């Protein structure tokens, strides 16, 4: 049908608006990136992005997977296949986000069996679940007791941060051990239920879009399968982020280090993925990029972390103020890399307040002014946490513990 001049003008205007919105979405990402291959869902559904298969990258630093099953619990069916499905999603998000932020990396690597399958260590534990959880529940005891038994079974985890699927208790917690390039990230083995995790990657991506109600992981309440599958799979990305030096970041609801992972499925819908509805901030991507799990160039001989000689408040924190001066002095012979600072307390929990890229400088000394998202509250604890990497993937952390004072 021939288009009349006025209709043509409307059509062109609509096209320009669409292009402008698309451009704004690309600018919002910081950088554009090429999406993985996608395929059309059977029927009338959206075009879905299917993460590529995992492969052994032959890196020295790999993620180790462990399924920890107390003696009074049973391993769930198809946990090996489901582990691979979950890790395909995890690896794909990390790879895409690193690419978006222009970091050269082949991505995250895992341990593999000799036949090329993803390796999952099944630990049939020595004791019943309550031995590990404690009664009442004690998170430190759970992590410590599991880690000790895992090391006895799999060997000391140098260069091997361990992602544990635990049948002992419901928890999502990470404990980095940076001096040996390791750590422990623990989540509930309930993630292996069929309602939450599928045995094929195609079915898992469809789980992300399925509104059928299922029982929540490690709970009795019900929630849509899409939310449970997205959140459970996303938590793995989040907890590993802590192992890679990331802290919580509440500046943007889309951040994985906040709760952005609740919408993980949008990253596998070709129509929405390019807008990065789930993301790592530039600062956190920079942190991960220098770790030995992502970096493609580092000095293996350098195993000494940066020295933080000073990290303190320049004066007492007063109620009602929003800015705080922090005195910092640190150095590293090989060169300092990215740094982040997070605030807890003072009316705001887990607020990301500063990041710097020191770009290989051997020394840094100065006063940094950080801004709290809200005015500080009298009497509340105020905590500042600094994480700093050197250029060879060695991490140091220090903490300021203070209390907000009345402002006379």
Tally of individual domains: 2
Helix content: 25-40%
CATH architecture annotation name of the largest domain: 3-Layer(aba) Sandwich
The count of helical stretches stands at: 8
Shape: globular
- State the CATH class of the largest domain: Alpha Beta
- Secondary structural class: alpha+beta
Classify the fold: give the CATH topology of the largest domain.
Answer: Collagenase (Catalytic Domain)
Query: What ranges have pLDDT less than 50 throughout 5 or more consecutive residues?
Result: 1-33
Query: What is the ordering of alpha helices and beta strands?
Result: HEEEHEHHEEEHEEHHHEEEEEEE
End-to-end distance, in Å? 76 Å
Beta-strand percentage? 25-35%
Number of strands: 16
For the largest beta-sheet, the strand count, sense and barrel status come to: 5 strands, mixed
What average pLDDT do the residues reach?
90
Indicate the radius of gyration in whole angstroms.
Answer: 23 Å
Provide the spatial order of strands within the biggest beta sheet. 4-3-5-7-6
């Amino acid at each position: 049908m021939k288009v009349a001049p006025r209709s043509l003008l409307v059509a062109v205007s609509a096209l320009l608006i669409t292009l402008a919105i698309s451009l704004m979405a690309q600018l919002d990402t910081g950088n554009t990136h090429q999406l993985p291959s996608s395929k059309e869902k059977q029927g009338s559904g959206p075009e879905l992005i299917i993460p590529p298969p995992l492969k052994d990258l032959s890196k020295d630093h790999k993620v180790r997977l462990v399924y920890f099953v107390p003696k009074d619990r049973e391993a769930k069916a198809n946990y090996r296949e489901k582990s691979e499905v979950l890790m395909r999603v995890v690896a794909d998000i990390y790879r895409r986000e690193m690419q978006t932020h222009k970091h050269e990396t082949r991505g995250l690597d895992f341990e593999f069996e000799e036949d090329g399958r993803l390796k999952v260590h099944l630990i049939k534990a020595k004791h019943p679940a309550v031995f590990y959880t404690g009664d009442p529940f004690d998170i430190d005891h759970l992590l410590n007791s599991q880690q000790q038994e895992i090391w006895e079974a799999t060997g000391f985890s140098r260069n091997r941060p361990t992602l544990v699927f635990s049948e002992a208790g419901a928890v999502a917690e990470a404990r980095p051990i940076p001096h040996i390039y390791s750590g422990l990230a623990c989540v509930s083995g309930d993630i292996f239920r069929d309602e939450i995790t599928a045995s094929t990657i195609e079915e898992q991506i469809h789980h992300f879009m399925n509104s059928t109600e299922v029982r929540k992981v490690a709970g009795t309440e019900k929630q849509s399968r899409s939310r449970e599958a997205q959140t459970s799979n996303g938590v793995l990305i989040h907890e590993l982020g802590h192992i890679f030096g990331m802290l919580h970041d509440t500046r943007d609801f889309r951040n994985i280090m906040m709760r952005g992972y609740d919408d993980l499925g949008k990253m596998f819908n070709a129509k929405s993925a390019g807008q990065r509805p789930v993301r790592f901030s530039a600062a956190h991507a920079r942190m991960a990029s220098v770790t030995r799990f992502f970096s493609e160039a580092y000095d293996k001989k350098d195993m000494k972390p940066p020295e933080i000689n000073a990290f303190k408040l320049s004066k007492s924190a007063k109620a009602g103020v929003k800015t705080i001066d922090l005195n910092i002095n640190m150095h590293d012979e090989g060169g300092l890399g990215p740094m982040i600072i997070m605030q807890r307390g003072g009316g705001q929990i887990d607020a990301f307040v500063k990041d710097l890229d020191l770009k290989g400088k051997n020394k840094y000394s100065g006063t940094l002014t950080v801004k709290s998202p809200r005015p500080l509250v009298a009497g509340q604890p105020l905590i500042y946490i600094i994480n700093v990497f050197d250029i060879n993937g060695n991490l140091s952390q220090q903490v300021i513990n203070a209390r907000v004072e009345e402002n006379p």
